[in-house]
Design a protein that fits this description.
The protein is built from 4 helices and 10 strands, in the order βαββββαβααββββ. By secondary structure, the protein is of the alpha+beta class.
Length: 171
């Protein structure tokens, strides 16, 4: 882990979670420093479940990152400043099957632990351990308009991860 990053108690997080995820976006990354993939997401959440600090993230099975999430026990959520908006946009609209996202965008992968990867340019990193997953079932949508998000019927898989470490960049 880069020395610029310091551990942060999740209870001391001052950022607005709704802005971080929905407005600023995040990178979901799974794998290790030798083999990983990352994707941009703007759906997710943080909370408390089973007496643990957790995150929720949603990944469609068609995404390359899905394969890595299935193969690994840990993943990271990385949050960046506005100056990385173009990089996050690229990472959300291009597949790691076809392009090296880090090399193309100029973000620098770094090892958080032997089983997790994030990026040196991130401002905040949540290192997470998978606790649970479930595929979204459209039969359970109580508001039928939710299905409008799934023109191709490619429903997300929900992952619940325990936040095992939270890092922030010192300024």
């Amino acid at each position: 882990m880069n020395k610029e990053f310091k551990l942060l108690d999740p209870l001391k997080l001052e950022n607005n979670i709704f802005d971080l995820i929905g407005k600023d976006w995040m990178l979901i990354t799974a794998g290790n420093i030798h083999r990983y993939n990352t994707m941009t997401a703007s759906w997710g959440g943080f909370g408390v479940l089973w007496n643990r600090n957790i995150c929720l993230c949603f990944v469609r099975p068609s995404r390359y990152t899905y394969q890595f999430l299935q193969e690994t026990e840990h993943f990271t959520l990385s949050f960046f400043g506005e100056e990385y908006r173009k990089a996050l946009s690229f990472c959300g609209s291009n597949s790691g099957r076809n392009v090296d996202k880090a090399a193309t965008t100029g973000i620098s992968p770094m090892e958080c632990s032997p089983t997790t990867v994030s990026f040196q340019e991130a401002q905040l990193i949540a290192e997470c351990k998978k606790l649970y997953f479930q595929d979204l079932d459209p039969n359970h949508f109580l508001d039928p308009t939710i299905d409008n998000n799934y023109k191709q019927k490619d429903y997300h898989r929900l992952y619940i991860g325990e936040i095992i470490r939270l890092f922030h960049k010192e300024y």
